[in-house]
Amino acid sequence: MLTMVNMRWSLGYCIILASILTGEAGAAGDDRERRIEELERRVQQLEQQIQQLLGTKPGTKPEDKPGGKSEAYPTEAERTPEMRLPVSGYMDFHFNKPRGEPGQLDFHRFVLLFGHSFSDRIKFWSELEVEHAFVEGREEKGELELEQAYLDFLVKPYFNLRGGMLLAPVGLINERHEPPSFHGVERPFVDTVILPSTWFDTGVGVFGDLGRGLVYKAYLMSPLDATGFSAAEGLREGRQKGFQSSWQNPAQTGRLEYHGIPRLALGASFWRGSTGFRFRGVNPRVKVFEIDGRYRLGRFDFRGEYAQVAISKAGELNLALQRETGVSPNVAERLRGFYFEPAVRVLPRRFNRDLALFARYENFDTQNRMPRGFLPLKQFDRSAWVVGATYYPEPDVAVKFDYTFLRNASSVVKAVNSLNFGIGWWF
Amino acid sequence: MLWLLLLLAAAPPTKVIHMTAERFTFIPSQVKVKAGTVVEFRIHSEDTNHGFRIPAAGINEVIPKRGKGELKVVFHADRPGRYEFECSKPCGAGHNMMRGVLIVEE
Ligand SMILES: [Cu+2]
Questions:
Q1: A333 part of a folded domain
Q2: What's the CATH superfamily of B13-105?
């Protein structure tokens, strides 16, 4: 192929040279330019003729070689017709057995993703999720969630617009939650009770690639609702999930990622906003800060995350909720968590399958600092070792196994270890 | 003899670009070459299938999954300009963001 390409080039050059030598481009000034243009046009014509003789057209690939090699030439930018993208999806099927309790089978997630490309500049993306396979009017059995549904207006690589139902760009898991992309049957605890993944709501924002490996997102999103905060799960039930979300004081959120060094990915994200729109007089502000990193070294994978949540006026919030419901939720002023996870792929590269062994240490405390007059519930100062394996019969299918050793700081409430088994796949 | 010299002199330079595709970035996402270069992209994935599409060149290929080899694409950067490329195979929440640009300089 390369010789064919060289020949084509060479022919073109030779024709120009021959033309110059025969004096066709010998005149001066404008005339010369005009003639060069004319020559260029003729060279292009000849090139096209050669390509036609070889059975190809410019802008198309002349030949597919084994290994997926293709060739192409720039053409006048073509308008791409409107295009429906193929449906994608992922599924997550779990078996959880807490110690001393009967095991449970759970079709945890069934997710379908739909995309549509209106043009090269306007694109739609959506994610519809059925949780626990069963949906009723009330949430106890299962949930049907529209986790993403947004329109992107692509302007420049470094500046694009987005609006609709968005994933909060916070943390390692929230935007990368396809089951084969993380180890362990359940998502990390830090990404569940400190950062409330899957965290999604209505919003608008900008995003882009600044070059040198820097990628950013900055959104305004519906605020969290403080009436849902709790001692055990922090912000989790404060997500409005797009349900007539209040937009009085949109929250600000953003994420910066760095991919400039091979095999290393770093991320930092934040969220800040008022959360008291259902109260009069109490308006706690929530600030979330998070950093994360991933690194690959040969057969080893490392990832880690640190997340911290600050809730202002937590004491007043507890009192206000106690007046309403009779019980204080004992919301903390600060929540904090981190984890570190090394993993190693143990099967030789020539195998078609992969087996990864991993161990994740997590430390997460949703009662890290209490407002004045409130005592921390020690059972929510927790740590965990999640040890297990992920088997990939195919890169998009993950058969997962882990044992979770859970600890807490309470001398009264005992933490329960669990055995977990799961199958997750993406297509 | 003269023909042979001319042929050799006219052979355009080739540049191999090794690229990693991973949810939801191409690394590197910006590539600069001089006009007249033949660019050979060699792209491998660290996770699922991605697509590699350069609309202005009619290229649209699939990058194989992790461990399943690499995609080779040859692009004749004849004309100066900015050639945006994108992932054309839905790969998750950040799919629309998975983009980059090939800058062909004079
Ligand atoms: Cu992709």
A1: yes
A2: Cupredoxins -  blue copper proteins (2.60.40.420)
